[in-house]
Amino acid sequence: MDSLEDTFKGLSIARRLQPDEPSYILDLALPPTSGRTDLLAASHSNHTVRLHSRETLRLWGEYQGHTGAVFGVRFSASSPDLLYAGSADGTLRCWDVRRPGSSAVQTFRSDPEHSYCSFDVSCNGRVLCAGTEQVGEDSFLVFWDSRVVGDGGSEAEGKQNRLLGVYSETHSDDVTAVCFHPSQADRLATGATDGLVNVFDLSLGEEDDALITTCNCESSASALCWSGKNLDQLLCLSHDEGLRLWDLSRLDSDDPLTLLSSDDARALASLPEGSTLDYFVGGAWLEEAGHLLVAGGSHSGELHLLECSESGLKTMTSLRGGHSATLRCFQWDPVGGALLTGGEDGELLQWKAGGEEISVGKKGTLKSISSMQLKTKAHRKHTTKRDKKQSA
User: Fold this and answer.
1) Phi and psi at residue 18, in whole multiples of 5°?
2) Residue 375 pLDDT more than 60?
3) Residues 6+ away with beta carbon under 8 Å from 343
4) Which one of 2, 210, 246, 314 is separated from 167 by 20 to 30 angstroms, measured CA to CA?
5) What is the tens place of the pLDDT at every residue in 202-226?
6) Structural domain of residue 359, as residue ranges?
7) What's the CA gap between 307 and 25, in Å, rounded?
8) Strands 291-297 and 338-343
9) Number of domains, the chain
10) pLDDT of 349-364, one tens digit each?
11) CATH number at residue 360
């Protein structure tokens, strides 16, 4: 069997889905391998969530209901027919993928002043957590039990669910990243524009007791990813392209947690001549291969796949000829052996080793919407604690 690096080096475009109307693709999600393997979900800047065929990329259905940018989508690990979406409109919504185009079966919200900018679902599918933008001097982590339907009434788009609780003391600015552990349902990592990454054990109860460690990423956190053979390492990417890799198995020892630290990790990657790395998209732990993958790109659409370890970043491959604008999201599909990418050009691409491009949908030049019109956290300028101190 070819190594992962050999597979990545052979990647080329197999499918290209061109949208009917211009909108950014903000996030992609695949269902767990224990569930349906024929679906792909995408969130769009026009407030919709779309279901596609995982193999052909053809549109299966579209969900509507959100009134703000849908920054994230997640399938439930315990009920793969349930798809969750988080929006800046202050709601999380849940749809049944067996009924494409139907109304949301559940709607989750908290205080009317809360605008969410991150969320995730626990690995057992029971707990939802959303991070809010700063409200006054506070920021919140909001929790719901997906199984408990509240008695606060119902709406046309679905039932409103009762809150489990709120954490309000551990972050002081927008909570831009929420990431449950892939196998420990009570383990949660959160990051914010205050430069802090907090790790909780929710089984311990109240916020002060549940907080088991705080790491400083020295900047505004943009993405978190659990990694490592025992999934006890945590990757943090920042909005100014910094990178931190911590080993949380060392919490009970005197060994330093930090395995890798760089304020600007773009300099760690050795790229092909003529290539540029302007930003990082995110990270993914590839369990079967045992690699931590970091994806980055250029504003002209180049895509770089990098292996991250405590020794730095190693370029596995650089791909051109795909996107024509900034990438926003990616997913590695281990079942189909494909890389799926989306971005500000509105195109959804499937990359496979030895792929030959097949276009799906309309051709033609698309005018991308202005980033000034898009309210989403992924590429907004953030003011960190460090910046505030420097400007004081």
Assistant:
1) -105, 125
2) no
3) 24, 25, 297, 301, 323, 325, 326, 327, 328, 329
4) 246
5) 999 999 999 999 999 999 999 999 9
6) 4-391
7) 24
8) unpaired
9) 1
10) 999 999 888 888 654 4
11) 2.130.10.10
